Amino acid sequence: MALLDIFKSKNQKKTEQKTQKPKERPQKQLNVYQLEPGPFEILSDEERDQLEQKFLQILNVVDKGTIYIQASKTKYQYEDEEYEVLFNKFYLITEANLDYPKGELTRKKVKRALPRYVILEDNTLAQAAVFYKFPDLAPEGMLFEYFGLGDIVIKWESLDPVSAASAVDRSRKRLESLGSTDSIIIRKLEKVKQLQAIVGGQAKLLRLWAYLIIYGQNEAELKQKFMQARIIARSRLFDLDIPVFYQKALYNLETSVASFIPFTNTVKPVYVDTITASWEFYPLISEDLIDADGIFLGFSDSGSPVLFNPYMRNNHNIVILGETGSGKSMTLKILLKRMKEKYKIKIWGIDPENEYVKLAEILGFKGIVVQRGTKLGLDPVLMAKINVLNPEDIAELLAEFYLPDDIALRNRLRAAVFDVYDESSDLFDLIERIKNQDEQIYKYLEAAKTPPDVYIFEAEDKLETTENIVFGLREISGQGATRLKALITTLLAAIFQREAFSNREKGFVFVDEGWLFVNYPITMALLENLSRRARKYSKGLIFATQRPADVVNNDSGRTILEQSATVFLLRQRSQSLQVLKQTFALRDEEAQELLQAEPGHGILRTGNYLLRLYVQPSKEEFEAFKTTGEW
Ligand SMILES: Nc1ncnc2c1ncn2[C@@H]1O[C@H](COP(=O)(O)OP(=O)(O)OP(=O)(O)O)[C@@H](O)[C@H]1O
Ligand SMILES: [Mg+2]
């Protein structure tokens, strides 16, 4: 494997001016820097502008440079399955001394040069295809579309200092001449005008080459890849060409050959100002998320594995949003299973559809199926005695679940609870004591003493909640079932929180079908509280629900969302489009795409990352976790 010694020898041959052969230049050390890519495609306009601004600085500072994007492939193994993984490494090669980490670029050597391709040392073939005929307005970050087809080279030299003003002016005139109402043109024109007014002095004019290096086992493979690239290029109104006799030079990252015939020794460059180049040729794009020590989630749309480590975010909470059948529960189960394997997480869960309780063994927790008549012993007064709740909570809870929405009544209930709480031995005792205080309030609370509510509070044995426990609530059905589920969830959430916050071992509380609870402020307030404080105890909340509106239009829901560094957006309904775009700063295309997403496909936002993702279950996971056809 050979490296950059190629450059050193080639540099001497460089014939930059067509008219005059330069003398051998004193050889300067070429530096290879490693550049850090990031998400781009689905960023907002403002976020893109910021990245392009940074790239613009590189173009302005580096008079002569090459960006080399090396496509790499590796295998990724999860369980017994092996996946092919594509990823890119980004290098900047220049004589300039810059403040970037040094990198090491390893490439195969050329064994033999043919007119249309080169043969490499391992007998594979490589072919350089140069982009040309750019349209007046090429798309931002347009080279990203070719990532994965081969390596990408962007090479530039700044021309003799062109006055800043004129370079910017050129760019402005060009944009203005397009005279379009297209939003991107307007946006870029604004940007150019701003630059002209403020930092115009930094702009330069470049001679630039952009090309693709395609690899193949044989000519047929080269041809097939070239055609693929060309189809994309033509759909964008520019083209790709294979310069004959320049193949070796291009492979070696040179754009000229020694030739005796003037004007034929250089691959034709594009002339472009640094500002335009900073968006059209913006290269540092990677939709990949590869967290150190992360769990495997699936694949980004560039084919890279997504490795996710919730502990690398500033909180561990996760929200999963997607309509029925979009794969929320599958995603949640995969998260639990893999986090259990990797981080040994403790699990506490609310399972409204009894999907998780039957996975108790696989996911490593105790599953409790709550049936009609199961006595749960979730007595709020007893819970208050052990500081899981306080008298204030008891009043809130009783008001929420037993009183009509009437402030006067609620205040009377609160007063009554405070009066009798101290001498009450349990909830039923407290209710009896309230009878003497306030007959009308008592009438409302009587419902707590009769089925089905009574079972929630009554105990057969002491309720045994420990860590690693999930409650299945599906059997609670019929009229008033949602209310009962919310009541149980509220009490369980309080107990879960107490257990989860009793130490700093890793763990997650999860709530599936969160929409069931969004109309119960006290339930949501408890979950909100959990999400706010969880991080301190190395815990997190995973909250899955159907519509973004469930969380966005709900005070506590909104807080949970804000407290969640990680959000999975799976398939959505069109009614959610507006909320989605506003809340998650999605571009229109991405929001639209979510309307048609297949199960498990969607967008992951975690920390600063934003990427399209497919959550990939292994075969066994899929079989164990799927729900279709079961009811
Ligand atoms: N990542 C995935 N890959 C392949 N198929 C999937 C994936 N996720 C879900 N599915 C398929 O879609 C079905 C529904 O998924 P899931 O139960 O997770 O949806 P959901 O969003 O939880 O729906 P609901 O709101 O009805 O609970 C699964 O049974 C499975 O067949
Ligand atoms: Mg589900």
Describe this structure in words.
The structure is a single chain. The protein is α+β, with helices and mostly antiparallel strands. It has three domains: 5-162 and 204-280, no CATH class; 313-376 and 463-625, P-loop containing nucleotide triphosphate hydrolases (Rossmann fold), CATH 3.40.50.300; 378-453, no CATH class. The protein is built from 22 helices and 21 strands. Strands 12-11-21-20-19-13-18-17-14-16-15 form an eleven-stranded mixed beta sheet. Strands 1, 2, 3, 4, 5, 6, 7, 8, 9 and 10 form a ten-stranded antiparallel beta sheet that branches. Strand 4 and strand 5 form a beta hairpin. The model is unreliable at 1-22 (pLDDT under 50). Adenosine-5'-triphosphate (ATP) binds at residues 322, 324-330, 546, 599-600, 615, 617, 626-628.
**What small molecules does this complex bind?**
adenosine-5'-triphosphate, magnesium ion
Number of domains: 3
Number of helices: 22
Average pLDDT score? 87
- State the major sheet: 11 strands, mixed
Q: Tell me, what's the shape?
A: elongated
**How helical, in percent, are the residues?**
25-40%
Q: β content, as a range? A: 15-25%
- Order of adjacent strands in the largest pleated sheet: 12-11-21-20-19-13-18-17-14-16-15
What structural category arises from helix and sheet content? Answer: alpha+beta
Low-confidence stretches: 1-22
By DSSP, the count of extended strands is 21
Rg (C-alpha, Å): 32 Å
Distance between the termini: 59 Å
